[in-house]
Amino acid sequence: MERGGVDGGGSGIGRACCEVLAREGARVVAADINLQSSQETLSLLPGSQQHMAVGVDVSDKGSVEAAFKSIQKHYGEPPSLLVNSAGILALAPHTDTSEEEWMKIIDVNLKGTYLITQSFTKMLLDGRGEVQGTMVNVASIAAKTGLPDFEPYAASKGGVVSLTKNCAAALIRKGIRVNCVLPGLITTPMIQLLKEDLQADIKKSTPLGRAGRPHEVAELIAFLLSDRSSYMVGSCVEVTGGYMM
Ligand SMILES: NC(=O)c1ccc[n+]([C@@H]2O[C@H](COP(=O)([O-])OP(=O)(O)OC[C@H]3O[C@@H](n4cnc5c(N)ncnc54)[C@H](O)[C@@H]3O)[C@@H](O)[C@H]2O)c1
Fold first, then answer.
1. Which Gene3D superfamilies does this entry report, sorted A to Z (predicted)?
2. CA 121, CA 205: separation in Å to the nearest integer?
3. Total domain count, the chain
4. Which residues make Cβ contacts (< 8 Å) with residue 97, sequence separation at least 6?
């Protein structure tokens, strides 16, 4: 049975990934800075006793290492599938973004993705000649577009795209496939930070004419985690309803 870890698993796209992976028969670890929300995710999964909820702050190396150790202890082996969905959004006008705000977003979205990748691959490769693992990072279409007030968020997601490609090149010969997705506007708690008129503008510019649902991203992620995408390496796939295509 596959073992899948999802950070940011307590909400939105991460929670939908937990649901889709569980439906496909994986044992799922829902990891989130908000432990209560990852426990809530667990309660939504069929066969919840075989799954696990973990508290983790992806921007903190000690917390990430402790989370992987607790997963290893619980299952006797590390996860073989991983989704990096933890993320934060904050909007700030160019001249008003403080150094602290800038670093917070980079720390969670970019450094966090790196720290999780590093611990995941170290644990999976540890003492093993050949492994089979897949990982999907959640970037954003903001990585490729220019939107006012999105600078630190967009830069962090541009970094995730670059990190994906470089990790994919480094890890594929060791048996670990890495890809990423670039969602457009998806209806999750995160977008409550966007003003109604901005959301309306984005929907208007989206050929499909609406925001996406978390499961529409999670189904793509499940495909990228599976052998059905065996020839995809370092791919960054847009899932946007056509926004900014
Ligand atoms: N919703 C969108 O429109 C959209 C679009 C493009 C990309 N994304 C990306 O998708 C991912 C999921 O976002 P979402 O829309 O589901 O938002 P969400 O707010 O519903 O979920 C994000 C989750 O990440 C967790 N989290 C935040 N900081 C963390 C940390 N330091 N350590 C561990 N967990 C942490 C939160 O507690 C939350 O459960 C994010 O990376 C986001 O940037 C979202």
1. NAD(P)-binding Rossmann-like Domain
2. 39
3. 1
4. 151, 152
